[in-house]
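Quick illustration for those who missed Monday's session on complexes.
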Amino acid sequence: MLFVLIIILYKGSSKWIWFFMKKIFRGGSIVTANGIQTADLLIIEDKIDSIGTDLYDDEAEIIDCIGMIIMPGGVEPHAHFSLPMFDTISSDNHYTGHRAAAFGGSTTVLDFTSQLPGQSLQASIANSIDQASKSAAVDYSFHINVTDFNADIEKEIRTLSLQGFTSLKVFTAYNDTLRLLDEEIMSILEVARDHGLVVMIHAEDGDEIENLVSKALSDRHHEPIWHARTRPSHGEVNAGKRVIDMVEESDAILYIVHISTSGLLKQLVSGRRRGVRVMGETCPQYLFFTEENLLQSDGGKYVCSPPLRSLQDNTDLWEGLSDGSLQTVGTDHCPFFANGKLPIEYDGDQVSIPGKELGDDDFTKIPNGLPVIEHRMALLWTFGVSTGKLSVERFVELVSTNPAKIFGLYPRKGALMPGSDADIVLWDPNKKHTISVRSSHMRTDHDLWEGVEVEGMPKQVYLRGRLLVKNNNWFGQPGYGQLLKRDGDFQFV
Ligand code: URP
Ligand code: ZN
Ligand code: ZN
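Prediction with N-(aminocarbonyl)-beta-alanine bound:
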């Protein structure tokens, strides 16, 4: 009512119209990957207009940012929404997952298309866009997952970057379903190199996993810990090394997803020293948890691939983030209910989706993946920036700027520059919060960081100038997120 009255009072006044379109973020510390400055930031409609001291515009809404950090919206490079797995699907869809991402400070999320056997990439992309377009609450795109390779698929790959898709994902594991042969991966690296694409690799040793799983099952081992025992660290290292060698030979560009071992981190560092164009991502779960978690009575919750490793791996991966060896922190968010037989209340509905209980009697049937997208930035801030492991600029680089550069979105995303999208996170470095499934927004029945206190959270989150989150309240809506044509300059970082 009040709103309507105000509109009537201001009818015809351009000042009122501009009030919706111009905002000055006043008095905060502006942080980008390149530095920190205390300044004001003016946005007009959906773009950043200018940054300067004492910016003045009497038509603009003033947003008080004193004591706050202003940073570019997070770019989440790795998530799986509604991903079919075994006899279920990951439990966040593009709306619930995007909303959780936004609550955590991410305004762009990159998911994956999942090519079915015999399916064209175009059909797989069309299907993913169809699923996402009406639900998307933040901006998004897809990495193209190639699981069935032949001459027709090779032709399709040649056209992908022209359509705005600049990244492919391939697997060296999941024999008989997702895995490609080494010679197919080599062909993909070559065609990707010639057509402006980065290849992402899920590095595990598919053959060794098959053998170890058969043996474990015939020895009647069914507990979640066997998920880790049948996917040993050396398999990830060897598979990763094999692909890095192929990249060296082909001069392609590689992005290694979800690095979980210090061994593969060492291969990444050694490849980069030799001049191989290889980049690496790790995820919060590989910084915080270990194989020991799989021994708990609720060990199934911790099943993801590659599996959780050791404390030494955790430490070395943190070191890789501090010393610049790793390029991004993604989440590989792929949530499943701990007990999909028990409904939870979510958005006022009773929801239950089959989950980890599918593998109660057999570890090979536990859906692989974890809920984490909402906590990426708060965890990295609290345990990285606040502990002195990461500078604030490096934090922004890892969660926003580097993913934007690597995946063809920079400087539209990942930057605070005149002309960039007005994707802005007002970060409160002093805001304390105890993580709990009761307050998290991811659509699942548990939170792996339950009870962990974080200090540093988004206070306000804007996507293309529009408020999505303020003081933990949601102002976004399904369908506002746009499919991004990724045509920015590809950058090897
Ligand atoms: O366990 C995982 N990581 N599930 C998601 C699929 C993948 O391999 O990234
Ligand atoms: Zn993977
Ligand atoms: Zn993944």
